[in-house]
Amino acid sequence: MTQFPALFRRHLIPVAMAGTLALAAGPAAAQQKTIKIGFVSTFSGPTAVIGNDMRNSFELALDHLGRKMGGLPVEAIYEDDQQKPEVGKQKTDKLIESDKVDFIVGYIWSNVLLASLKSAVDSKTFLITSNAGPSQLAGELCSPYVFSTSWQNDQTPQAMGLYMNQKGVKTAFLIGPNYAAGKDMLAGVASTFKGQVIGQELTKWPDQLDFSAELSKARAAKPDAIFVFYPGAAGVQFLTQYAQAGLKGQIPLYTAFTIDETTLPRQKDLALGVPGAQQWVNDLPNEQNKKFVADYIKKHPGARPSFYGAQSYDAANLVNSAVVAVKGDTSKKDEMRREMEKANFKSVRGNFKYGKNHMPIQNFYLQDVVKDAEGNFVLKTVATIVQNDQDRFHDKCPMK
Amino acid sequence: MTPMVNARNVVVAALLAFLLLLPVYTGVTGNTFLLTLFTRILILALAATSLNLILGYGGMVSFGHAAYLGIGGYAIGILAAEGITSGFIQWPVALVTSALVALIIGLFCLRTRGVYFIMITLAFAQMIYYVAAGLARYGGDDGLTIYRRSQFDGLNLSNKPTFYYLCLVLLLAAIYLVWRLVNSRFGMVIQGARSNERRMQSIGFPTFRYRLTCFVIAGTMCGLAGALLANHTDFVSPAMMYWTRSGDLIVMVVLGGMSSTFGPLIGAVALLVLEEVLSGFTEYWQIILGPLLLLVVLFARRGIDGLLAGVAFARAPKPDSLDAKVPRG
Amino acid sequence: MIYFIEQCLNGVQLGMLLFLLAAGLTLIFGIMDLVNLAHGSLYMLGAYFAASLVAWTDSFLLGVPLALAATLVVGMAVEVIAMRRLYGRDHLDHVLGTFGLILFFNELVRLIWGPAGMTLFLPAWLNVAVPLLPGLAYPLYRVVIIMVTILVALFLYALVMRTRLGMLIRAGASNREMVGALGINIKLLYTFVFGLGAALAGFAGLMQAPILTVQIGMGENILIVAFVVIVIGGIGSIRGAFIASLFVGMVDTIGRAFFPDLLRLVLSKEAAATAAPALSSMLIYLLMAAVLVLRPEGLFPAANR
């Protein structure tokens, strides 16, 4: 996490304060050009585990690239958004104005992304979201400077809704957090689920980690199934309380983004038999993925990469494809954009295409939790739910 | 009589000169981040100046002053979201709303003293915070992006140096206004009420009315700062109003020097520059700031202004009269 | 109906946690006239100590008392090093000084334990639900919280009302100069009271840790609510703190549980979901404002302030 140029710049302030208006030493071009990538994610609080996974995967990608893109050295600057929109925005502004980054990657949370969007777009800085996918971004707020290496929020729950139809679920109760992504998730399930949604609860996010009220309501409604979306530590809490309330085994649970490699170590057998949907699972059989997972486990023993990490790994390679295409001249923004629109890199989920709104058109798989030979809890691909799925907001995007 | 040329006046003069010439410097070196940082400092200095009026001079320790930042900011944000981007409509709305809210809050709170006053101003600020967090249409907790800054004919707020100078002009006007107020009969009554309200009342001054007016003026001024802040960050969120932000403002006022003209500005500059500098050295800089605050409270009660004027160890002006324990003033 | 009973129980449980915090806060305020914003930091430290010590000793029953002891020690150390110098100064000085302590403790915790927060796992025997009524399976741990805090309340009552020490505490709350003049070692008394408050706060922190969270800054939110409680209950009064905590806990929980449904009658589902927690949070502040305006000494003030 080198911040040397920024450090140098900051120390100018006390000098200036003394009243000396001596002009700063030397033009910035005296230092060798590096490709600067800002990375905004959450590195504090209970969801720091996600940010760390993303950082580890991004670093691994840079290692695999030899820490160079287009022949130029790469510098990654990581900033913590503390899961707060206003902080994420502040950090984004700092990366753009103070560190003058060429690309910004990251953003776990949709609300943080939406708050930071204007700064990136106004300054014409490329923003690659490697997780958040609010519906507005796929629709009316789409921008030539924003790309996604993840999905649009609705897509994954939509896939789960399709699966619930396959399983013959007739009535469902939906529970999720009350912020941009939570609303997208519940809307996504409702859009493909053919049965009846007999109840829906949105909880205060991120403060509310006590779901006893919502679980009681769900139990009282007697649905065929409960669908839930709670990322990070909240997912652990939910499954724990679900079991504590005696619902496990009584009402089946269907999830999106609630069970993944970051939460599985703590959920353990509470997650057994609970299905989820995802566009990437760690056992997808392509070459790039095998290398990614194997090297990640080697570099971080005891840990496995999650989809958050896989998406960040892809983001690094997407950026690389653009920089290589312009041979390191990052001022050629139109060329870089055209290259990125081709999705011309080896993604760990297998090749995919971009829609005109820069959202991936990709497959979604059914994942289940099993115990492997060593007794660890791992995720396994069970089936493909839908192929080449495109988000349902791309018509609202004014780009061609 | 302190001589004209003393440490404090020199520092203030140098600071003003620096602030005046900063955009020239950043224009030449291209360091826009510095300009952004100092625009923010100027806006918060304006908020601190308004707080100093009631806290430093008036002895009213309001722990809910950040609420006005939010009210001013949300006035801009909500109007912009509804398509009304003319500054000539937005800013008066922000000011009038802040004044009205300050009037209502003042009517309730100014009947109390001491720690009860602190708590009730805090309560009201939290209530306003929760109202903003409950506005689903305007983002709630996630906040609201402002896509177009306030439009004024002939003045382009999106131009960084223009906006910076606007903030500077407004700040200096506010400092001047506070100075005039404090040095007038109005100011004498306020300060008299701070040290001994009963005596002021027995002389015949309706102190409640004076203090309420003072409270409303301070709230309106802070609402203006809120409008500026919304334009500066192109974003408003309830977090602007959380009680710890009010705490930050109080810190600025005390650090700079309560009941001094330029204290709030010095405090804002000191705190925010310190934050930038310290966070360049270590990411755990608040470990230094925390005890520093405690030390200032214990040993440099008159703040930086006091230190410069050579009165570091003097007792600070007591914010409350001797009957502070009595709940009703 | 079952749902309502469950929410009432949750309200009582929240109230009891608040009581632990408020009791310490009101004692410190009542006896030393000290506005202690850093009380939330002690709450946070209790949770962190518990998370670490339970993990280290691999035993919930061993880790918890150790964490309590650790918080007590830290509390007394803070009193000796920092708080002593603030006695007798105005409340603004207290506010500023302890605000600085909040910043310090948040960073210290980040330095020692890292930014990610921690988890405190319940032992399996606590992690079950008990059938309190037919159809109502309530988590055992929450029942334990209620029982234990009632015991603590009784202990505090006994301490304050029936022991010599308690007599000193009550006397100090009414007239501290007199107590000092009578030759009692006021300094020691203060250190003890502060330590007791710290232990109570730490206890609240560690009790809520398994069901809620252990993270930096967790004290800030609940501190304000604790202040609201002591203002409503009456500064310096433990009885007032008890009743006010229960009251506030119930209002907050029932409000959060039923307000959204009420609002949904008027607003859209989404708007209701956003507005409801906000408005129900406002309720307790409205309550406090009302109390301050109508009966500023609080509902059950300590005698002879």
| CATH class value of chain C | Mainly Alpha
Basic shape of chain C? globular
Low-confidence segments of chain A, ≥5 residues, pLDDT <50?
A: 1-31
Count of individual domains of chain A? 2
Q: Could you state the order of secondary-structure elements of chain A as H and E?
A: HHEHEEHEHEHEHEHEHEHEHEHHHEEE
Structural class of chain C: mainly alpha
Low-confidence stretches of chain C: none
Number of helices, counting only DSSP H or I runs of 4 residues or more of chain C: 11
CATH architecture of chain C: Orthogonal Bundle
Beta percentage of chain C is under 5%
CATH topology assignment of the largest domain in chain A: Rossmann fold
Q: What class would the helix/strand composition of chain A place it in?
A: alpha/beta
Largest beta-sheet characterization of chain A: 8 strands, mixed
3D architecture notes:
The complex is a heterotrimer of chains A (400), B (329) and C (305). Chain A has helices at residues 4-10, 12-17, 48-64, 85-97, 110-122, 135-138, 155-166, 180-192, 212-221, 233-244, 264-267, 287-299, 307-325, 333-341, and strands at residues 35-41, 68-69, 72-80, 103-106, 126-129, 146-148, 171-177, 196-203, 225-228, 253-256, 276-278, 353-354, 360-371, 377-389. Chain A is α/β, with parallel strands linked by helices. Chain A folds into two domains: 33-151 and 284-361, Rossmann fold (3-Layer(aba) Sandwich); 155-278, Rossmann fold (3-Layer(aba) Sandwich), CATH 3.40.50.2300. In chain A, helix 3 (48-64) packs across helix 12 (287-299). Chain B has one domain. The longest helix of chain B has 27 residues, at 207-233. By secondary structure, chain C is mainly alpha-helical. Chain C has one domain: Orthogonal Bundle (ABC transporter involved in vitamin B12 uptake, BtuC). Chain C is built from eleven helices and two strands, in the order ααααββααααααα. Chain C has helices at 2-32, 39-57, 60-81, 91-113, 140-162, 164-174, 176-181, 186-208, 218-233, 238-264, 269-294, and strands at residues 129-133, 136-139. Chain C has a two-stranded antiparallel ribbon. In chain C, helix 9 crosses helix 10 (238-264) and helix 9 packs across helix 11 (269-294). The relative contact order of chain C is 0.19. Classes of the chains: A alpha/beta (400), B mainly alpha (329), C mainly alpha (305). Chains B and C meet through helix 5, helix 10 and helix 12 of B and helix 4, helix 9 and helix 11 of C.
